[in-house]
Amino acid sequence: MKVLVANLGSTSFKYRLFDMTNEAQLARGGVERIGEDLSPCFVEIGEHRSEMETPVPDHAVAVKQCLTQLTDPEQGCLQDASEVSAIGFKAVHGGRISGVHRVDENVLEAMTEMNEIAPAHNPPYINAMRTLSEKLPEIPLVAAYETGFHQTNRDAVKYYGIPFEWAEDFHVKRWGFHGASHRYIANRMAELLGREDARVISCHLGGSSSLCAIRGRESVMTSMGMSPQTGLLHNNRCGDFDAFAIPMLMERTGKTLTEVIDELSSKSGLLGLSGVSGDCRDLEEAAANGNKRAQLALDVFVADIRRYIGSLLIELGGLDALVFTGGIGQNGQGIRRDACAGLSELGIDLDNEKNSVRGEEFSVHSDSSRVSIWVVPTNEELVVARQTKELLEG
Q1: Beta bridge mates, 212
Q2: What whole-number distance in Å separates Cα of residue 200 and Cα of residue 88?
Q3: CA 265, CA 354: separation in Å to the nearest integer?
Q4: Which of 19, 131, 164, 200 is the most exposed place for a label (fewest CB within 10 A)?
Q5: How many CB atoms lie within 10 A of CB 256?
Q6: Per-chain mean pLDDT for the chain
Q7: Nearest to 230 by CA among 203, 260, 194, 269
């Protein structure tokens, strides 16, 4: 069985193709600037990489473009597009629907109900799924929701202190996201530690960040709430924020509710605090050159990480492994160092020399640390491919 895993943006399409008989990645590629006059496309098959620019008006054409690349007689890895058994989507928020589902009208309606909660994520997926269902009906579509991994959280960490009817009627709960990444870390750490009962905190740090407490390969608690804007501050999204500040901001700035929400979701976070960038690499360079706001943004980010490490550790009742993943988690030595600083009394002791590693799987704890500390590259696409395969088979 071969599964194509799609990761969509409003104007982008990225994919990986897996042979699920051995979980080998056969190819990866993508299309940028969909809908413009010319869209850059690339594909990597083995050691070969090709690039081109061509008009790609919508996501269905992007998928067809990728299938054309994959079936190229000279450089492709497929004899025919029919070898693709399904397209799996790393879907974000289905509200009343979670877990893994074949895409149908009910699934699409559930996602549409959550458009206001995940405005940067749900609409592109919905549009692409509808278009692909119409233009490529022979290929099954599967939605693997990011919220699915956190269904095992107990009610006490799911519910907000709001009228109960809001939670039941409108699904206003702490759903959590980055489920594919945290699921991968849960399974990988069980393998690395040789334990099924391991207590793990997974720190997915990147453009969007969240932490997750894991016990026995299951999510116990997570930092994100109702929407992907919550929890830690993100590259340009605010993270946790007091809702009662919104009417005051509207009154004093003269902005509409929509304008305030737009600033909180696209002009805040690391970018908003620093005024420089939402990229930690840029902020570290600016801070090294004396930019105090860049340093402030980094300090707030680290403080958020440490705050959630503490709350998740308490929920777990102890800790066996602390894991850093995602673009920042895998490459940000300074962020890892500062997040672990002064935690020896909690059994968390980072080895600064080992911590020089970037982007590869490696343990970075000291010999005296009671908690093992790991850098583990995540593989969200493989998780979605596995979930797609399991659904189709059973």
Answers
A1: 202, 222
A2: 27
A3: 36
A4: 164
A5: 10
A6: 94
A7: 269
* pTM higher than the cut 0.85: yes
Closest CA to 228 of 276, 259, 266, 257: 266
pLDDT of residue 10: 61
**DSSP 3-state of 284:** helix
Rounded Cα gap, residues 98 and 82, in angstroms: 28
Query: Over 245-294, what HEC string results?
Result: HHHHHHHHHCCCHHHHHHHHHHCCHHHHHHCCCCCHHHHHHHHHCCCHHH
Length of the chain: 394
Q: Are 80 and 62 in contact (CB under 8 A)?
A: no
pLDDT level of residue 29 (50, 70, 90 thresholds): very high
Locate tokens 């930019």: which residue? Answer: 291
CA distance 111 to 118: 9
Instruction: Identify the structural domains of the chain with CATH numbers, from first to last.
Output: 2-144 (3.30.420.40), 195-375 (3.30.420.40)
pLDDT digits (tens, 9 = 90+) for 104-117: 999 999 999 999 99
| Neighbouring C-alpha atoms within 13 Å toward the C-beta of 180 | 26
Query: Which tokens belong to 109?
Result: 């309606």
Cα 186 from chain centre? 15
Amino acid at 187: N
Q: What is the C-alpha to C-alpha distance for residues 167 and 156, in angstroms, rounded to an integer?
A: 13
**Hey, which residues does 40 pair with through a beta bridge?**
53
Residue 385: which pLDDT band, with cuts at 50, 70 and 90? very high
Q: How far is CA 25 from CA 28, 158, 379, in A?
A: 8, 36, 11
pLDDT band at 12 (very low <50, low <70, confident <90, very high): confident
As a whole number of angstroms, the distance between CA 106 and CA 275 comes to 42
CB contact at 8 A, 17 and 25: yes
Q: HEC string of 332-391?
A: CHHHHHHHHCCCHHHCCCECCCHHHCCCCCEECECCCCCCEEEECCCCHHHHHHHHHHHH
Here the tokens at position 262 are 């737009």
